[in-house]
Amino acid sequence: MKTRYPAIAATAAVLLLAGCASGSTAAAPAPSASAGDAGAFPVSVENCDTTLTLEAAPERIVTIKSNTTELLLALGLGERIVGSAFLDGPLPASLADAGADLNVISDFVPGQEAVLALTPDFIYGGWESNFSAEGVGERAALTDLGIGSYVSPAACKGDAMPDPLTFETVFAEIDEAGALFGVPDAAAELVAEQEAELAALEPATGDTTALWYSSGTDTPYVGAGIGSPQLIMDAAGLTNIFADVQDTWTSAGWESVVAANPSVIVLVDATWNTADSKIANLKANAATAGLDAVVNDRYIVVPFAATEAGIRNVEAAGSIIDQLAALEAK
């Protein structure tokens, strides 16, 4: 599928970087994209079983979800973002200045009318489901309007789903975004920083079992074995009690959690489902109140926006390592 607006038509060389980068170090200030960083166009990529071709870098971009917004800010493209939506939480301190003037048009997936009013030439979505008739519009329909679209590859479904998600995939998206938006040098620099940070991590040793508790009360929604929760836990040295589930996230029964009796519980903190509310649920639930991690308050907290595939995954792994060390020191 080609987009009438910037059709990227020659294949961009996307570096699949298998390196490692350190996690708890704060990211450098977001660079500003410059003319000298402009990439070669046209460029073409395969994205979630859709061929995307652009003839020039997009100039009016709508971002959906925190991971896509934060990546563009980190690449110095804040001035090209005409609207953002469905953000998962506040920006990290390292990007607060770059994103100070973000035009947030919706706390959820925006409708087509709101998006088209911004006259975008490109929409960068965090999930495939963002692109629906009920959301910003289907990708083919957007193409007919001259609007390009791209989905974070980690969120692709079907045969295009990463299985499992790796840091190679996360870093490849940065490079691919650099090619698509005409800032390959900024992307290469960001990948190098992330690789260095990942390489500097010192994962926990031993067998520290963990529950990744994303949401839910009666039925918990937990991190499974092939998505970003597993990626982050692996980097931190935790053993996921649901690692054998062939999915990114999954619904589980509390009885399975009780049987596993994890050493620690990783709590995903979101404004609509806080870590504190999860702790209250765990203590109030007769089945989970006796878990060792609950009795001994062995909780690790990560912000929701850092838990989906993106530039904050290394940081999240580093934070988990630091929090675990603090728990062990008690």
Describe this structure in words.
The chain is α/β, with parallel strands linked by helices and 330 residues long. 31% of the residues lie in helices and 18% in strands. It is built from 11 helices and 13 strands. The chain has helices spanning 66-74, 93-96, 112-116, 139-144, 167-180, 184-199, 228-236, 254-260, 275-284, 292-295, 313-329, and strands at 43-47, 50-54, 61-64, 81-85, 104-106, 122-125, 148-151, 208-215, 221-223, 238-240, 249-251, 264-269, 299-303. The strands form 3 sheets. Strands 8, 9, 10, 11, 12 and 13 form a 6-stranded mixed beta sheet that branches. The protein has a 5-stranded parallel beta sheet with strand order 5-4-3-6-7. The chain has a two-stranded antiparallel sheet with strand order 1-2. The longest helix has 17 residues, at 313-329.
Overall 3D shape: globular
Q: Biggest sheet: strands, sense, closure?
A: 6 strands, mixed
Query: Got a strand count?
Result: 13
Average of per-residue pLDDT values: 90
Which sequence of SSEs, written as H and E, runs from N to C? EEEHEHEHEHEHHEEHEEHEHHEH
Level of helix content? 25-40%
Spatial extent as radius of gyration: 20 Å
Low-confidence segments, ≥5 residues, pLDDT <50?
A: 1-36
CATH homologous superfamily assignment of the largest domain? Nitrogenase molybdenum iron protein domain
Number of domains: 2
Structure class: alpha/beta
